[in-house]
Amino acid sequence: MPSVSRLSAALLLLPAAGGCSAITGAVEEASRPPIEKPEDLAALCEDIGSGYEGAAAYEGEGPHSAVMFFSGPSDDTEEDPGYRIAAPNPESEPDATPIVSWHPDSPDEASLLVCAEAGEPGEELRTCEFSGSGGSTMWMSLRGRDYAFTVYELATGAVVHEADFSATLGVFPGSGLDSECPTWVQAEQTPTELYAAPSAAELHELLSGVVEAPAG
């Protein structure tokens, strides 16, 4: 894998209304893979259903533990990987990664699920210069991208907040970095286009009014 661094489930018979949702919920739970770590909650971004019953209650004052996922490939050579977790880098300084305290150590500690669905890549923002193997220089276009954020109460699947965001930076969400171009790129093939994502600081500004505020 080359890398470069930067230079500059249904039922046939259903009961009458009142018992349907409980049975449907049970079918959903049975069809899901086991949820053992925060990364496993990605399946709920695809179909939240009635939520995850093992989650912490969303109540009281904030902050509320939140697990965040982003959809969409990061460049033009990557197949769509589905939803990927945006776990903050625990080695970053707190002020560099202000969302680090939101992320729980286990899914049972989480009370909110944040799912960011990526739209199609937008206009070219800038050209990023990289050095490849053997000292070669290459350029990749960074294109903007819009994201639709949905914040769920994890225990119930209820939507508690929605927001849109237009990303313009070359960062990995939660990394603590804040740069116009990625510091490095790792891919099976050399990309020609990279897609923007929000920085940790931008995520904090966008979502702190929900995650850090009293439960609504």
Description of the molecule:
The chain is of the alpha+beta class and 216 residues long. Helix content is 13%, strand content 30%. The protein is built from three helices and eight strands, in the order βααβββββββα. Strands 1, 2, 3, 4, 5, 6, 7 and 8 form an eight-stranded mixed beta sheet that branches.
Find the count of extended strands (DSSP E, 2+ residues).
Answer: 8
How much beta, percentage-wise?
A: 25-35%
Question: Which consecutive residue ranges, at least 5 long each, have pLDDT under 50?
Answer: 5-28
Number of helices: 3
Helicity level, as a percent range? 10-25%
Q: How are helices and strands ordered from N to C?
A: EHHEEEEEEEH
Look at the helices and sheets and give the structural class. Answer: alpha+beta
Shape: elongated
- What is the arithmetic mean of pLDDT? 84
Rounded to an integer in angstroms, the radius of gyration calculated over CA atoms is 19 Å
Key phrases:
elongated; alpha+beta; 216 residues; 8 strands
In short:
The protein is α+β, with helices and mostly antiparallel strands and 216 residues long.
What topology does this entry show?
Elements: E1 3-6, H1 20-31, H2 42-46, E2 66-70, E3 84-85, E4 112-131, E5 137-153, E6 158-167, E7 184-186, E8 193-195, H3 200-211
Parallel strand pairs: 2-4, 5-8
Antiparallel strand pairs: 1-4, 1-7, 2-3, 4-5, 5-6
